[in-house]
Design a protein that fits this description.
Strand order of the largest sheet: 1-2
Largest sheet: 2 strands, antiparallel
CATH topology of the largest domain: Fumarase C, Chain A, domain 2
Number of domains: 3
Oligomer: single chain
């Protein structure tokens, strides 16, 4: 018999049972459900709402159930709908009527709100550690490649010279924002909703702050209606994950380009590449491609829950059961992507010679040529036009600015001297950009130090 039987004269239709049931996916909340129930039972006994010996009996049985579930000796039933009713049924079967006292002063509405918050607090902590680990990989790659000169791009056209280290720090800074978004999300969701009841709290003299303390929450929710109907924290988490996956997807696209024969800036390790069933020469960047593809899944999870919540009146509605599959899928996807992506980047080989060769073409030092003239007193816009004429001359004669004869420079402007060639060298162009955030070795050193400081501040977890 269902725990909510009494009002109903008929058994639930089998199709409705299957349709209504969530145990197929919310079973993963068993640990959080039992953890919350232990704190709730302890509080009930402490407040005299149930007898102390009853609370102790419930807590002991819940701990046994937890051990049995983790040992794989418990089978959940679809007839009991969800993880909450499954645990309560198991409890009652083991200790009889005493088990029925557990749900005093509690509703499944505030129970599930508690379980999801407990689950997400744990998962945010784990995901945050994974992002920090990836940032550490990028910092080490940057340290090793401060002199690995390469073209930077706009519109996927070679634009200005930079270094591989500068590139790595760009993604490290994106991930730093992802970490702080996760931390912000965690801080906002660190509220304990149990005690909100179905929507209007309870008449029992419960101690919500005690339960919050037992479960490691910073505070309790301030409104019982909001406490059971709020899913902002799930949506905020999915938004943070979507942004993070977007960053990984952009990085994946770069890697896919860089390891192609057309670029050949990096070589992926064999352990993080795949081959072709028909073309023996192929070495495919499947890890990067899958990360790029799985980004769409996480976007879908976010849009799914936003759509579910957009027109729900207060308080709880069954629609909200749809939050869990989207949440679980995003958690699983992100946790699958981060470690393998980090390992792929950590093991890939950087090819500085190929990068430098690409950087020597495409006139990526044209801006530096114009800056050379402005330092000699010419207005930048005039210098811009003169360098444009030089580029056209080079294209017509299959030259680069580096190989153009000094007489050709001077034919267009008498301000050019022999030192123009040193000014156009990649090393000069890059290391002259000492502005904070720039690609010079000095500027990148500061960026790496800032990322390391950020990581060290969070090294305790």
């Amino acid at each position: 018999m269902k725990l909510w039987a009494g009002r109903f004269q008929k058994e639930t239709d089998t199709m409705v049972n299957d349709f209504n049931s969530s145990i197929g996916f919310d079973a993963r909340l068993y640990r959080e459900d039992i953890q919350g129930s232990i704190a709730h039972a302890t509080m009930l006994g402490r407040q005299g709402i149930i007898e102390t010996h009853e609370a102790e009996k419930i807590v002991a049985a819940l701990k046994e159930i937890l051990a049995d579930v983790e040992a794989g000796t418990v089978e959940f039933s679809v007839d009991n709908e969800d993880i909450h009713m499954n645990i309560e049924t198991l409890l009652t079967a083991r200790i009889g009527d005493t088990g029925k006292r557990l749900h005093t002063a509690r509703s499944r509405n505030d129970q599930v709100a508690l379980d999801v918050r407990l689950y997400l607090k744990k998962e945010i902590t784990e995901i945050r550690k994974m992002v920090l680990s990836l940032m550490d990989v990028l910092a080490r790659k940057a340290e090793d490649n401060k002199q690995s000169y390469m073209p930077g791009y706009t519109h996927l056209q070679r634009a200005q010279p930079t270094t591989f280290a500068h590139y790595m720090m760009a993604y490290a800074n994106m991930l730093r924002r992802d970490v702080t978004r996760l931390e912000d999300c965690l801080e906002r969701m660190d509220e304990m909703p149990l005690g909100s009841g179905a929507l209007a709290g309870t008449t029992y003299p419960i101690d919500r702050s005690f339960v919050a303390e037992q479960l490691g929450f910073a505070r309790i929710t301030q409104n019982s209606l909001d406490g059971v109907s709020d899913r902002d924290y799930v949506i905020e988490f999915l938004s943070a994950c979507s942004l993070m996956m977007m960053h990984l997807s952009r990085f994946s696209e770069e890697i896919i380009l860089w390891c192609s024969w057309e670029f050949k800036f990096v070589e992926l390790d064999d352990a993080y590449s795949t081959g072709s069933s028909i073309m023996p020469q192929k070495k495919n960047p499947d890890v990067a491609e899958l990360v790029r593809g799985k980004t769409g899944r996480v976007y879908g999870d976010l849009m799914s829950l936003l759509t579910v919540m957009k027109s729900l009146p207060l308080a709880y509605n069954k629609d909200m059961q749809e939050d869990k599959e989207a949440l679980f899928d995003a958690v699983d996807t992100v946790k699958q992507c981060l470690p393998v992506f980090g390992a792929m980047v950590d093991t890939m080989t950087v090819l500085p010679k190929n990068m430098a060769k690409a950087a020597s073409r495409g006139f990526i030092n044209a801006t530096d040529c114009a800056d050379y003239l402005t330092r000699k007193g010419m207005p930048f816009r005039d210098a811009y036009k003169i360098v444009g004429r030089l580029v056209n001359l080079c294209i017509s004669n299959d030259e680069t600015l580096d190989t153009l004869a000094l007489k050709d420079f001077r034919a267009i402007s008498g301000l050019f001297e022999a030192d123009i060639y040193q000014a156009l060298e990649l090393k000069t162009c890059v290391n002259g950009r000492k502005v904070p955030g720039g690609p010079s070795a000095e500027a990148v050193d500061n960026q790496i130090a800032n990322i390391q400081k950020f990581l060290n501040e969070r090294s305790d977890g």
